[in-house]
Amino acid sequence: MKFLVTGAAGFIGSNLADRLLALGHEVVGYDNFSTGRKAFMESALASPHCQLIRADLLDREALSKAMAGVDFVFHLAANADVRYGPNQRRKDLEQNTIATWNVLEAMHENKVPRMAFSSTGSVYGEPDVFPTPEHCPFPVQTSFYGASKLAAEALIQAYCEAFDLHAYIFRFVSILGERYSHGHVIDFYQQLLEHPAALRVLGNGKQRKSYLYVQDCIDAMLLAIESTPEKLNIFNLGTNEYCEVDDSVGWICQHLNLEPEVIHGGGERGWVGDSPFIFLDCTRIRALGWTPRFTIREAVVLTVEFLKANRWILQAPDAA
Amino acid sequence: MKFLVTGAAGFIGSNLADRLLALGHEVVGYDNFSTGRKAFMESALASPHCQLIRADLLDREALSKAMAGVDFVFHLAANADVRYGPNQRRKDLEQNTIATWNVLEAMHENKVPRMAFSSTGSVYGEPDVFPTPEHCPFPVQTSFYGASKLAAEALIQAYCEAFDLHAYIFRFVSILGERYSHGHVIDFYQQLLEHPAALRVLGNGKQRKSYLYVQDCIDAMLLAIESTPEKLNIFNLGTNEYCEVDDSVGWICQHLNLEPEVIHGGGERGWVGDSPFIFLDCTRIRALGWTPRFTIREAVVLTVEFLKANRWILQAPDAA
Fold first, then answer.
1. A72 and A188 share a domain?
2. Does A132 touch chain B (CB under 8 A)?
3. Does residue B257 sit in the same domain as residue B230?
4. Pairwise CB contact (< 8 Å): A150 & B154
5. pTM of the model
6. In this complex, which of B147, B154, B162 lies closest to A158 when CB atoms are compared?
């Protein structure tokens, strides 16, 4: 099969591209390199079955051209930054909502029949039910990121209803692992490299969060798209556990043999739109036979290992 | 208070403008006249406290200028056509989702603190719970219209969380009454004028629908914005009843003294994205003391009366 992966030079996209190639598929990577890294695609591009298109999803002509002959789209490209939402409102609208509309239009033009979308547990806002199932009470959005992803989900659903499109919407917890390049583990690691004696943590450190190892995430997505024939499929993706931010701090410091003074910013939320408790009910994806192989703690440690071995990741993207 | 009403030359907007002026408020009407009618605003424009701005919501400069000194925005402008959604996908994205983003940005620039939004029961898709409450299970979108309105709701919610914005989101059933100019009553009336002996009805006629009289709708909105001090308020607006499409057909024909042959198109849905059953739980708005004064049947008859007295409405908007 020929897969188009948007955000193919990103954390999850590049790992997925490698996996799809290993399974014998063709991959068209599409990335604007706003946060993607050429180095992440080196292994994929060593294959004759992978091509890379450097373009933005707002470039509808390039996007439509890239869709030619594609069987399945993994739409992973996004502005994945929740924290800066209030200051980059246009970016969430354009790169998440309008970009998804463009992907759907380009698929429609090219009669591409199937797609998967990386949504987020952030669409649940601050839910009342934990673990939170896919059919929890109609949520209220608390972040521009969540709002832009919910808008994208809604568009996908309308296209499924109106046209011959099959879609898989995955609501991720935060993903960790090799090529991780954005989020709290890298923030803490960078701080500790610069000032090993002190670590500033946003919020009170008691925020309860869920994480999933990137290869477990990819296993789940690939299993789902092979297993369910429905037109529209919505799955939470996470582990059956959560941790506090301070737990994660402890694991990172222990792994680095550091005992910094931990200075909490205070408050239940680290920033506007930060959810104090994320814990998804993953019964639906587990019913397909999927089980994550790594715990949250193991995923955190694997991520620190990756960062230690790849300090270049701390530099801004090279736009190479 | 100074109110900005988007879609002020439309059905609900022009009735609201009249009401606000009667209550002694100032009104800035904003309309692109894509479906609005100058005639609907004649009564409002007779007041020295009303001004009309003819501009599109995609014109951010005009919109921002219009917000100067405004205390409250009623954002009613929309592409309100569910039925043609699959053929006008860009219109729903632009006129409903991006336009709402523009309204929120213009409010933010001008520090306008409060707004109300005309959302729709269509955001519930095809729910499992009837009557459907605001906190029903997380719905799946079945129309481009519903998707674009849900996206707009999500944006409003994110702005409320991040900034000092108070918002009222009203999920309407279909609204009927004076200045109604779009929907099944006008379709049926027009058909019967042209061919009194036959009436074509989309779907099997058994679709169960809810309607609300426009003045009841306005009563509810004005009561809500005076009553609830929360930052974000979501209300269903409808009556405590529903009817079948064939009931409505019967009332219209009886009122017109006609006995046409009714020809059903067949199927549970009239078109892609048509919901076979819309019935909203309005406990929340009723708890504020609101009760609709008119039944669905009365609202249908009032609408036919209006159409009979205003046949010019059957012509395309004059773009005057």
1. no
2. no
3. no
4. yes
5. 0.96
6. B147
